[in-house]
Amino acid sequence: MTEPAHLTVTRAAYDTVAADYAIQLRDSLAASPFDRAMLSAFAEQVGTGPVADLGCGPGRITAHLRSLGVDAFGVDLSPGMISVARASYPDIRFDEGTITALDLPSGGLRGVVAWYSIIHTPRPLLPVVFAAFHRVLAPGGQVLLAFQVGDERKTITSAYGHAVTCEAYRLPVDLVEELLVEAGFELRARMIREAAGKETTPQAYLFGQRTAQRL
User: Fold this and answer.
1) DSSP string covering 70-127
2) Which helix (H) or strand (E) holds 152?
3) What pLDDT score was predicted for residue 116?
4) How many domains does the chain have?
5) Triad 128, 71, 203: Cα angle to 5°
6) Which of 29, 44, 163, 185 has its CA 20 to 30 A from that of 209?
7) What's residue 124's pLDDT?
């Protein structure tokens, strides 16, 4: 089966920037109180049981969740990112994989985090991604999304000091919420904060709980 083009180009971009991405964002949570607050709330809700950080990159969010007592592991489509994550956090599990075709058992997780990892997925494929999240979560499992707010597709040609090519999508919060509900999630919290530092758009966080059935 031919791999979708957006996965191929996104993987190549993140392989290119992996080492510098990890260095430049290594301490970013320390300056992001809203990020820490949402992750802490998520950690309190999931309790015991495995949590997948999907699109984990170099593993900084996975490691932060572990520091909060969460049994977290990471999955990312970029071998370069997974290599950096394994070297940085050798005691944490990191696997290669994609959010559109998760190689995880059904109903096995207490939580899923997608921390800016849906931003490279074309909008028509978001229902596929959210259906996959629903499948791998146990009933009552939690999902936490973070993404940039907007309604546009942006072509990225440079990042973290490297020339790259990939597409990124700014997403309407109401649309993402609607798609989550259609996929079988009950929205529990949403927060939108204004852009800070070098950010150019507001940032959104959506917190949902898996219901027993999809709509």
Assistant:
1) -EEEEEES-HHHHHHHHHH-TTS-EEE-BTTB--S-TT-EEEEEEES-STTS-GGGHH
2) strand 152-159
3) 96
4) 1
5) 50
6) 29
7) 94
